[in-house]
Batch of 3 targets.
Target 1
Amino acid sequence: MIVILWILFSIVVGVWADNKHIHAGGIVVFFVSLIFSPFIGFLVVISSKPDEEKMIKDMHMKKCPKCAELIKNEAKKCKHCGYEFDDYEQK
């Protein structure tokens, strides 16, 4: 029973890492959790910052030139600072 829970929690931490778009990736965090502990994998995900380049590519986002926050490609106005994009600034 403990082995099943260990594997299940490792999968959950790996999926969470993949959804958070951290640099290490979900597969790496899954194996770290599986080998060492799901708690260690949890700490890796908590302490990691999202990989902005991956988020821009995978989630179709762009970086605001004024405040550098990530926003959706379709946005005409930055929700963080209010910067308004021109039509030619769309990616």
Target 2
Amino acid sequence: MARVRSKAQRRKFAELLVEGKIDRGAFERWNRGAGSRDLPEHVKRKQKKKKKSKRKKTKRRAKRHG
């Protein structure tokens, strides 16, 4: 279930509710998902994972001792 993740997001949804762009049920679902947690003011975006190198790995040959 989706939930509100920050205080700023909660304010934005409340604003949309007042403007009539979302219904009360949608606002309650999102708000209920957060529960009574102490939310941060803003949430940072997750950083993208670095892409792995596409270089082919060569097989190591065992050294012969003899």
Target 3
Amino acid sequence: MNERISEGGCLCGAVRYRITGEPRGRTLCHCESCRSAAGAPSVAWVIAAAEGFAFTAGAPKRFRSSPHIERSFCGACGTPLVYRSDRRPDVVDVQTATLDDPDAFPPEREIWTGEKLAWEVVNPALPQFVRSSKG
């Protein structure tokens, strides 16, 4: 059986990555931190196993947005790429829109809706969580 391989990268192409294996989850996050980091009203994430994730070209810049969170982005074009939490070392969250085929990874839940912008509309077909879907 072939493992799923998904690839993606930044706007300018300087940083590329590969995900091997099926995602562990797909979310649309409305938290203030993700919105600020991406400059967007919400951010879609593919949650991948850390052992199945690798940068394949270039080296991203890294930024600690809080004591336990590291965000990676392209130092040339600024595209946000990856979110890692010291509290969840077994997974890597990859911004869905940076995948070569983002349509293959639609969100399965919306999280942090308690922090969403008042004018953004949630998808009523998806489960909604005021905070994290982990409780």
